[in-house]
Amino acid sequence: MDRMLYVAMSGAKQAMEQQAVVANNMANVSTPGFRAQIATFRAVPVVGEEAPTRAFVAATTPGADFTHGPLTQTGRALDVAVAGEGWLVVQAPDGSEAYTRVGNLQIGADGQLTTMGGRPVVGDNGALTVPPGAAVSIASNGLVGSRDAASTTMTGIAEVGRLKLVNPPTADLVRGDDGLFRMRADLPPAEADEAVTLISGAIEGSNVQPVDAMVAMIANARSFEMQMKSLQTADINAQTANKLLAYG
């Protein structure tokens, strides 16, 4: 009887946790550059003084889905999308480097180039600062240029710097709670990769498939209901056994 309770209890708990992961993916279906989180189940034996005859279920998030999201042409000068593999580098709150595919950039009040979330974008030589009132252009190789916004010609473009573009192995990346990716704790920051290129005037969308996410949410809900039914069945069986013993 207790084996049935172990299976049903752990299954219901992990179905709820997996539902939370799927719900988070679904909530970010319109978030630029979002990478869906992968959730799976695994069996974990119960370790104790007796023989390991019982096991419970644990939900794990082994990584993210690194497939590319759809590209949307915006025509905005500060919108960039990574072409193929690679990442933009931003500065995390603790000053370390983090990686993102979110390319809808903006210029802060201090002239610093940032993401829409306010994360400073990192260049090959540090932060990128644009002169006040300048019009900005970003080339496919990450070169950031500025010119007088009142100018009607392309002459007089000044080089601001170059975006740091990296392409570390996806196995070396870890997703943070803020949605940014970082190198594993035992690894140094990724080196700039000149092979990574950008598409100007476009942004990459989320790679979450709404239909697949909805199907996963329904499946998790049905799994939770099944586990709860098993708990109820175990309770009924226990009550019936107690009655038989009492009147036996």
Mean pLDDT: 85
Structural class call reads: alpha+beta
Q: How many structural domains?
A: 2
Q: Name the strands of the widest sheet in spatial order.
A: 6-5-14
Instruction: Quickly count the helices.
Output: 2
- Which percent range describes the beta-strand content? 25-35%
Percent range of helical residues: 25-40%
Indicate the low-confidence ranges by residue numbers.
none
CA-to-CA gap between the ends? 20 Å
Oligomer: single chain
Shape: elongated
Rg (C-alpha, Å): 26 Å
Instruction: List SSEs in N-to-C order.
Output: HEEEEEEEEEEEEEEEEEEH
Strand count, sense and barrel status of the largest sheet are:
3 strands, antiparallel
Question: How are the SSEs ordered, and which strands pair?
Answer:
Blueprint: H1 2-27, E1 37-45, E2 55-64, E3 71-73, E4 80-83, E5 87-91, E6 97-100, E7 105-107, E8 113-115, E9 122-123, E10 126-127, E11 134-138, E12 143-148, E13 158-162, E14 165-166, E15 173-175, E16 181-183, E17 197-200, E18 202-204, H2 210-247
Helix pairs in contact: 1-2
